[in-house]
Write a structure and sequence with these properties.
single chain; transferase; methyltransferase; globular; Rossmann fold; alpha/beta
């Protein structure tokens, strides 16, 4: 078994744990809310098929890209899309398994069109989960590199992204037993007020800016304009890869 396959199995096993289910539920709710009113033509989620990041979105072309399965099998470090061709890109912990996270983020910036949206999820090193010895073992099992929130914001700024919203969540301690997690629900209620930047996971929404360019409304084809090119992929109606909204 390769290291990548071992990491994939580690992620699948971890997501079935009480901690994993707790984290996944928070992330799914954030993504459902964020993508519901984002419009365009082409949307892609890179990895984590257990998380249906595009299920609440209504763009006509939505794909799940994965390095081992999914609608589109590809490398996340060399995406098969033209420059400036995607309207929405979802990266759920996609940078944490990258050999070079900054390069992978730059590749995401390349394929997003001006004013395109980037949604990122990552584990927060500055949290109870980040400091807990069990989380270090979980990180090794899943092949994750934890990237701090401030570090990621600096990378996004260098790549001409504006961070429009950031949220932290999952404030309960990383207990291994479900009853213990349930007993600490009060921390999720008070965490955003008492210790807002110490949630176990962060969710960032960013917009790709191009200096000197201003888009009004949704870019569509018209006289003298052609829509951004994208690779030829099966239409959403002809496949079952992404579950229907």
């Amino acid at each position: 078994m390769t290291a990548q396959e071992d990491a994939i199995l580690g992620v699948a096993s971890w997501l079935e744990s009480p901690r994993g289910r707790y984290l996944l539920a928070w992330e799914q709710a954030r993504l459902d809310q964020a993508v519901a009113d984002l419009f365009g033509f082409h949307a892609v989620q890179l990895g984590w098929p257990a998380l249906e990041g595009l299920r609440a979105n209504r763009m006509p072309n939505r794909w799940l890209a994965d390095e081992s399965a999914g609608d589109l099998h590809c490398s996340f470090d060399a995406l098969p899309f033209s420059n400036d061709s995607l309207d929405l890109l979802v990266l759920p912990h996609t940078l944490e398994t990258a050999p070079d996270p900054h390069h992978r983020l730059a590749e995401a910036a390349r394929v997003l069109r001006p004013e395109g949206r980037l949604l990122l999820l990552g584990l927060n090193p500055a949290s109870l989960w980040g400091l807990h010895p069990q989380q270090w073992r979980d990180n090794r099992a899943t092949g994750r590199e934890r990237i701090g929130y401030r570090r990621l914001r600096d990378w996004l700024r260098l790549l001409s992204f504006d961070v429009t919203q950031a949220q932290f969540g999952c404030y309960r301690p990383p207990w291994s037993r479900a009853p213990w997690l349930e007993a600490w629900q009060f921390m999720d209620r008070h965490g955003p007020t008492w210790w807002p930047v110490f949630g176990a996971v962060y969710f960032i929404q960013a917009v790709k800016r191009v200096h000197g360019m201003r888009l009004v409304g949704l870019a569509r084809s018209g006289p003298g304009r052609r829509p951004a090119a994208a690779v030829a992929l099966p239409s959403r109606s002809s496949r079952e890869g992404i579950r229907k909204s």
